[in-house]
Amino acid sequence: MTLNPPTEHQPAAAPPAAAAGEPGDKGLRSGSVGLLAAVALGLASVAPAYSIAVTLGLVTLVVGHLAPAALLVGFVPILLTAFAFRELNREMPDCGTTFVWTTRAFGPMPGWLTGGWVPQMATLIAMTALAQVGASYLLDVVGLAGLANNALATTATALLLIAATTLVARRGVQLAAWVQYVLLALQLLALFGFGLAALVRHGAAAPSLAWINPFGFGDSGSFAESVLLCLFIYWGWDALITVNEESSDADKVPGRAVLVSTFLLLGTYLFTAYAAVAFAGTGTSGLGLGNAANATDVLATLAPPVVGTALATVVKLAVAVSAISALLTCLVSNPRGTLSMAAHGALPAAFARIHPRHRTPSFGTVFFGGAAGGVLVLLELVSSRFLGDAILSIGLLIACYYGATALACVWHFRARLRESPRDLLLRGVLPALGGLMMLAAFARSAYDMVKPDYGSTSFDGVGGVFLLGVGSIALGVPVMLVARSRFPRFFRDGRAEIAAQTVTDPS
């Protein structure tokens, strides 16, 4: 990792902005994030221990022993989309990422809505869930299990976690990266330690290649449902792209980190899933992964019999740490997205404020910390079940902006796809397939979510998850119209101005 910490001789004020067309021209500390730090941020943002704990059981309920196959197939659209992110970042290494890329490809209004609003809303909702989960597990680990089930205690602890991670994120991406190294190491040690112990336990079944057979699904419905569940388990790696203007070799390092982090996630998930299925099986009773009582927290159920009570506490701590580290990454990535939007004239100038010493988007960081706390309290006041449905609705938002970004890649490079087989494949065919798969996932998940029995709430016969997911996207339309009236120049000339700031010749 490349670190450039401030020295006592460094002036308090941020350096002058670079000329348009240079990465890092928004006042961020350029060259301060290397490949290792970017990979750590990407992995941490996915919260691997938490994600596998709460998703593996649900996937197993749908497809049984083919859960590893579902994880593999669910990885395909993620990988295809990752190629789109890499190629677009090579052309336009801007911390606004999806906002800048979709604006360049499709214009200011689609860019503002699908590239700006949708990912910001998805991350904000996720932050409330991560804070609550981290608080609940943390209280349990420190011996306050009774308070872990108390809404007031968990909410208060979650707010403290949001405040603490906001302070760390505000201090700078270097400090955040060092914190992530420690938190990520604990997660990976816990997951691989659990997996190894499960595989060698007496009575564990021998792993089978049949478990990873992508053609073994019995019907299209279970196949689609399991793959949709797996989209959530991989979501978040794109947060590492938002530090591209602070990366060494801004046009190359983030793209490499995207591919490294996604493949590391795949390996970690497949290993953990294989170990869990081998040890517990997919039965519907006892420790079986097909037991609905175990579905929402596989690691908490299996850890005590696999590694013993004492080490099971370490596994629980890993899940708590996983949620907290992902929360921290959200507070690194979201403010950089709004920083770019403000720098391009699409949001109030306050979001473009850079701390004179830490060189971070200080206003945006504090804003999102406060917003996450406010949304958490609001959802808890409405109903604790409402918060659960809000988490489920994130899948729609993920599919929406990932799909839009993948298609933006194809459209942006359309005139250059014939220049080489590489361009045709990596900038055309693969992103197009990824975008279409994401749109199909969006349509299928919306169809499933509209049913009143999907999730925990419903309104007039329509599922609350659907209303929250589609409602979050729809709410962006009137907000965008207000922004259009306040920032007419961006909505008139934004596409051209973004093109003027890219590092290569526009196509």
Layout of strands and helices, then pairs:
Blueprint: H1 35-46, H2 48-63, H3 67-91, H4 98-106, H5 108-141, H6 145-148, H7 151-171, H8 173-200, H9 220-234, H10 253-280, H11 298-343, H12 362-382, H13 384-392, H14 394-412, H15 421-449, E1 458-459, E2 462-463, H16 464-486, H17 488-500
Antiparallel strand pairs: 1-2
Helix pairs in contact: 1-8, 1-10, 1-11, 2-9, 2-11, 3-9, 3-10, 3-14, 3-15, 4-5, 4-14, 4-17, 5-7, 5-11, 5-12, 5-13, 5-14, 5-16, 7-8, 7-11, 7-12, 8-10, 8-11, 9-14, 11-12, 12-13, 13-16, 14-15, 14-16, 16-17
Subcellular location: Cell membrane
Keywords: Cell membrane, Membrane, Transmembrane, Transmembrane helix
Protein name: Amino acid transporter
Secondary structure class reads mainly alpha
CATH architecture: Up-down Bundle
Q: Which percent range fits the helix content? A: 55-70%
- Shape summary: globular
User: SSE order, as H and E?
Assistant: HHHHHHHHHHHHHHHEEHH
CATH level 1 name? Mainly Alpha
Instruction: Give the spatial strand order of the biggest sheet.
Output: 1-2
Instruction: Give the integer mean of the pLDDT values.
Output: 83
End-to-end distance: 33 Å
Region (Disordered): 1-25
Subcellular location: Cell membrane
Protein name: Amino acid transporter
Membrane topology: Multi-pass membrane protein
